[in-house]
């Protein structure tokens, strides 16, 4: 069964900042890749994708996750491929982590979707629309309030 998990970002959480959010995305990538998943991280645009990739390079060596931007890296890709709206990931991705705040969804493209419900009211409404689309596509849905802390 296809699943979509929406993580709720609280206004006062460390994930409400860009660096905190990137740290949490890295945490999720590590979690899923240690389970053997190959995943695609969908950013809003090239700039955000490059910032996220750079964040991954700044991680301590023992927490490093092999990654590449779409179109770069080895032929079969690394466990984590980072792209942005309008780019297609490699064919061998089972899971998508969506960072883009748009109406686009990955229904029928991935077996597992990770998405976020941001703090800002307008962004929350767009996330609710994505949630409805996944529900209509038959995805099993769940929401999780982020409890993670890097400290």
UniProtKB/TrEMBL annotation:
GO molecular function: DNA binding; DNA-directed DNA polymerase activity
Superkingdom assignment: Bacteria
Biological process per Gene Ontology, one example term: positive regulation of DNA-templated DNA replication initiation
Name used for this protein in its record: DNA polymerase III, chi subunit
Organism encoding this protein: Vibrio hangzhouensis
